[in-house]
Amino acid sequence: MSDWQLERDLERSFRAAVETRERIAAFVDRTPLFGADDGRRLLKLESLQRTGSFKIRGAASAITAAGRPREIVAASTGNHGLAVAAVARTLEIPCRIFVPATAAGAKLARLRQAGVELVSVDGDPLRAELAAREACDGRDGVLLVPPYNDRQVVLGQATLGLELLDDLGGEAPDAVFAAVGGGGLIAGLALALRTRWPRCRIVGCLPAASPAMAEAVAAGAVLDSPLRPTLADATAGNIEATTITLPICAALVDEWQLIEETEIAAAMRSALFEHRLEIEGAAAVALAASLRHDDGGRHLVVLGGGNVGAQTLRTITSSHRRPAELSDS
User: Fold this and answer.
1) Which of 90, 126, 204, 208 has the greatest number of beta carbons closer than 10 A?
2) pTM of this prediction?
């Protein structure tokens, strides 16, 4: 178990999330909750959040809790970097983002437009995370903002759980579906929701091509998982061996679903054609898991990001190419 151990004190974590929500209010929008399928499926549109994903919550939490560093460093496949860059720009703090060389081209273009210094790292997203951490070692005044392995980042994502509680009050859904990469989002959601919706099932959704957290929970330790290309690039990659999200996920997430690339592409098409929603592959992972489990229950699906490139949208809607070939690289 981690030293933090908020999973053993949910009420304390809930209060900490409430305090975090107040601190980051200036950086975060309240996003809509959209009813689909006659209200049986509720879609939380974090795809409409500032910078296009939920990541602004964790980034704002970590940076505002740190006072005023002289430089901010992060590692990202795109969404986390966009969020960190936005907060850094508002606070007028220099920012450096380490990105894997395989990051989607559309997100890299947006990062360049944000005016941050980009450092490309060969290998998967974990190598970029480790390179960013190494770049901060021993440097005073330099703040590392990890994408998931950080107390303040997880508390920032927990504010999304508080917003869902406000949206629905005591009317808990039967299940909540959220995409999982390093586990920051679902760990934060679980910490917030368990205190008020104890019987709601929390379902972690991963691309089958990148199952790192599900395999870590099954093994009781982080493994070096085999990875394949995936439309859900925001959840792709291995995770840090010391991540605080693993014990929280192991304790509080009820179920894990591995989603195939064809299902991810189908969910992206469904969101676009049926609801006029442009969502990225990572968001579609959660929607696909809910669609797979169309059991008549009331589902709440977190659509975590909308930063999808135009070429990917065109291809999934008009082509029969294999989904693994569709990345905006």
Assistant:
1) 204
2) 0.91
